[in-house]
User: Fold this.
Amino acid sequence: MASEPKYDIFRDPIHGFIKVYDVEKDIINSKPFQRLRRIRQLGLTSLVYHGAEHTRFGHSVGVMNFASKVLDSLWARYNTLFVEKLKWNSSLDCTPMVGQIRLGESGRVIHCSPE
Assistant:
């Protein structure tokens, strides 16, 4: 039985405790991803509602968590497709691709105020 890859735990106010594997942590620690800490997810809403302090960084970490759960579910159901056709060894093999897609998307979104 293979051991689970090394991971850290992030505490998220919406998703609770999130497992963040080393490959995902490399993406999170990159400069483009860290830049998301300065971009507000809700634009100028925080000027009206003081609790609306959600950033693109927090949003993207939550999306990463949700995408990981979806990929794990697909992996469990279609394991042979991933292994035989795509030559992936685990659901973590596609994590960098999901992270890049997510980073690419955040560059196209128009923000009201990046601070």
Remarks:
- Residues 7-108 form a domain with the Hypothetical protein af1432 fold (CATH 1.10.3210.10).
